[in-house]
Amino acid sequence: MMPPAARMMAAAILCGLLLAAAVFGLPALAEKAFGPAAPWLTLPQLVQYSAKLLWADGLLTRPPSLKAPDVSFSVRAGEGVDSVCSRLEQAGVVVDGRALRDYLIYTGQDTTLQAGQFQLSARMSAIEVARQMQDATPADVVFVVLPGWRIEEIAAGLPTSGLSVSPDEFIRVALSPRPGYDFLAGASTTEGFLFPDQYVLSRTTAVEALLDALIRNFAQRMSADLKQGFAAQGLSVYEATTLASIVEREAVREEEATMIASVYLNRLRQGMRLDADPTVQYALGFNAGQQTWWTNPLSLDDLKIASAYNTYRIEGLPPAPIANPGPESLQAVASPAISAYFFFSARCDGSGYHVFAASFEEHLGNLCE
């Protein structure tokens, strides 16, 4: 028969073995339920967090609510995991911020939390919330088209926009006919009708959908009053947009747009050539030396370029818009100033403003030396 002392020692060893088995079995159970642990955790930490996760279980794997709304949640640059998890609990996204914190530390995701804006919801489990915050790349992007840009300039903004459309693809489709819009009937390009604005688009937006979004925005801006204004000037929507594109490029100062529109309309009514520098710039195309689509200054040889867009050589409007005008330029054509001016030139002070003249002699006197 085993002496009492020996029996007590054996019992202690057995209890120790059972305890060790339970303790060291916890990481295996946690890994099975929650995935592998971060490799830098020490053995005591591994056991500690394994036990915490197994205890929390449902708080991590089940969503708190199946009908909760989306919550816009911002993680600040440099914000600690404790603060993030506490605020998520306060926002009602997770039930227990401490359980989420333990999961993040256990998996090592506490070191890879991304700063940014996230759309989260209590419809997600805490584990899903943790995964969401590893990627701050939003599903949607903001794409901006500025007034006065031509198609190629819009395309140049695509590589950094987050959209999957390539510049070459965009240019190819944009410079092709676009059926389905009355104002583009017979047009060989969409130039002028890609409305300058800020667009919120899915990252997966295809080129066709992108163009439709821009053109549809233009169509929605064509109010009855605007169309009536164009008609009052004897212009169709297409012709008015073509003139507005020239006004857009000329009017450095927005408040001068109506006066510049009046000059061009006066010229059209008198059968005079428009002599508009932006049309020559459009015809010249990209200036590699200046790294711009809008050569400035223009030389006398530039003004002689053989092009249907060169209004120093052709009469009337060019065959299509030369850029995409904004709402102010479109409105300026619909409601121009009433003037007797036929000429304008840039002020010599570099302010961007113009001097207007009714006669050619007066115009010559306004030119800078």
SSE map:
Elements: H1 4-34, H2 43-56, H3 58-61, E1 70-75, H4 81-90, H5 97-107, E2 116-121, H6 126-132, E3 140-144, H7 151-156, H8 167-174, E4 198-202, H9 207-221, H10 224-232, H11 237-250, H12 257-270, H13 277-284, H14 327-334, E5 343-346, E6 354-357, H15 360-366
Antiparallel strand pairs: 1-2, 3-4, 5-6
Helix pairs in contact: 1-2, 2-5, 4-5, 10-14, 11-12, 11-14, 12-14
- The geometry reads as elongated
Average of per-residue pLDDT values: 90
Give the strand order, joined by hyphens, for the main sheet. 1-2
Strand content: 5-15%
Secondary structure tally: strands = 6
Describe the fold and architecture.
The protein has 369 residues and is mostly helical. It has helices at 4-34, 43-56, 58-61, 81-90, 97-107, 126-132, 151-156, 167-174, 207-221, 224-232, 237-250, 257-270, 277-284, 327-334, 360-366; strands spanning 70-75, 116-121, 140-144, 198-202, 343-346, 354-357. The strands form 3 sheets. The protein has a two-stranded antiparallel ribbon with strand order 1-2. It is elongated, with a radius of gyration of 34 Å. 32% of the residues are buried.
Entry summary:
This protein is mainly alpha-helical and about 375 residues long. Helices cover about 45% and strands about 10% of the residues. The chain has helices at about 5-35, 45-55, 60, 80-90, 95-105, 125-130, 150-155, 165-175, 205-220, 225-230, 235-250, 255-270, 275-285, 325-335, 360-365, and strands spanning about 70-75, 115-120, 140-145, 200, 345, 355.
